Amino acid sequence: MKVLIGAYSQLSQGVPVPAFERALTAVFKPLLTLLHHSEGAVLQLSLGVPVLEWLELTQQPVNLLLADLARRGKVELLTGSYHQSILSLLSPKDRSNQIELTTTYLRKRYGQRSKTLFSYAQVFNPHYINTMNLCCIDSLVISSYDCDKPKQQFTEPFSMQEMGKSISVIPTSSTINSLIRKFAEKEIGFGNLLDQVRSMFEAKPPFVMAMINIDQLLQGGITEEQTNLLFTMLLQYGSQSIEEAHSLEELPQKGYLQAGWYGFDSTKADLCCINDLFVKDESLSYLYGRYTSMVEIARTYKKDKDVRKRLEHLIQKLSTGTVYLCDANATMLRSSVRKLFWRYISEADSVLSALKDFSYPVVTDFDHDELDEYLVIGKYLSCVIDSKGGSLAELTYLPSLYNYGDTLSPLQGFGSSLHNQHPALQGRKQRLFSDVFLPFESVLDEYAKTDEQSCLDMSTTVYNLSVLDRRNTEFRAIATTDASPIIGGEVGLSKHFKIRQNTVLLDVTLTNLSEHPVSFRYGCEIPLSIASFKNPIPFFQLENKKNVLHEDDEIILKQVKSIRMYDEPNSTSLTLVADTRFTLLKEDYTIEIPTVLGVEQLYQHTLFMTSWPIQLESGAEKKITLGLRVERK
């Protein structure tokens, strides 16, 4: 029986430091100490560069122990993508760069030239083989369990060829992977996990590659003592090096692993592949489109070498795959992870727009929906004006590079929302200043965009968008509601955006296009992702004599003139004001999900909806002005 024992962690940048500390205490320290005292044991280990950098900067004794084990051959470090990229989402050149960066990092710090790749997120494409050959990578460690089949396609190593190039594929044990996932989801206890893993080994299969997901062990609540028990048991069956596993007398079997998303690491819901995510989730499609557009535009700049180097560095960081995954770290749902992505995007935008010898395109179809978006970069604010909904797809405060428009309403199956009174549409991008119409006598407590009978949602309507000035700071978006029973007729919408130094001004003109009077309630949705040390997100209602603090996660207030929110981590305040008093609906959107830190409640965004009751005679107009100001406290 050939046995390989391995472990891996996908902890990434943006995940809270306590997650790294818990991994260190519960798994890394006891595992590396066990290896230090074991004779003849070899562990295949795949740790993301964020983990290795954290160990180097803050846990030097543990990092030195890891380096010593690597030099003695007790640990075989597997290479991968440096910024935890999903390689299939990158160009061939960028795939090579990511792998080479990781291989160089491991060689310089741990003295090993890794020739084995562990595919981040276990996404695979046969095109990887050419990239691996270019990077002198001989082997791939990956699960061959296809959830669409579902079955493990291969149980022993095999040779795979593609376009005249070949690699050795080492499939991990789907039985063990499945048991680790069940432990993470509290379906089985630790004792049951040990018994079932032991039973599998005692059946003496010809080959076992036990690749243990450390993050899922942490999600299941593993302790230091349990880590010792688990890996002591695994290592007693003999753990060989990958080179020894290859030294078979007979030739390896041939096989072919098709493009797919393998294993049990990530929540897949009903997705057939990783690219299906960009078909079904508007927010993530927009985010990925922002990356691909930036790569295409930035690489057309050829002049200043230092600028090119800086842009290339940002592109590498933007290629991260963590923002698309919901694994034991729930990185997709972490605002802190997504904010890093938007920070790099905004920094690259600023670099390109400041170049005097380069014309940065301001009109781009970021989300590939056949509709152009307009990028506006001012002194303090950066915005993306979208014709879909006649709205803002982004709102970034440039001094802090923080995108307040980074809102997410994930697809079903990616965590559970905390019983929101006014649920957002799943998989729909939440844009700022989108329009809704409600019956005149509607009760805002019952407001729901999911109810088409009592809510006319204009967020997917394509507005006629035009630029009004040469500096691209003023835009007009025009649309009509068509005849609607909710309105009792047809209304024309004209929205005039004015992007100032640190303020977005919006003039809304509502015109009755019907031949009879109409009455309705008009609402303007402003979902904002606000960094705060408190949850729920507090805000102040501003009045002439006093400011009233509200700390509810859901509240409806009447006769509001203006409100102010504070973003304490970025020392910024946001003020929302209108020319006429409005009714305000405020609700925080939070996702609950089990992670390496236990069951967490992860904040996504806060909906602020201003609304007014409107009655219009035939041909009459109603004008409303809104302003959102972002400034340092």
Could you describe the 3D structure shown?
There is one protein chain. This protein has 633 residues and is α+β, with helices and mostly antiparallel strands. Helix content is 27%, strand content 32%. It is built from 14 helices and 32 strands. The strands form six sheets. Strands 19, 20, 21, 22, 23, 24, 25, 26, 27, 28, 29, 30, 31 and 32 form a 14-stranded antiparallel sheet that branches. A five-stranded mixed sheet has the order 4-6-10-9-12. Strand 30 (572-595) and strand 31 (598-616) form a beta hairpin. Helix 7 (190-202) runs parallel beside helix 9 (224-235) and helix 12 packs antiparallel against helix 13. The chain is elongated. It starts with a strand and ends with a strand.
Strand percent estimate: 25-35%
Let me know the number of strands.
Answer: 32
The low-confidence parts are none
* SS-based class: alpha+beta
Largest sheet: number of strands, sense, barrel closure? 14 strands, antiparallel
Percent helix range: 25-40%
Number of separate helices: 14
Radius of gyration: 27 Å
Give the mean pLDDT. 93
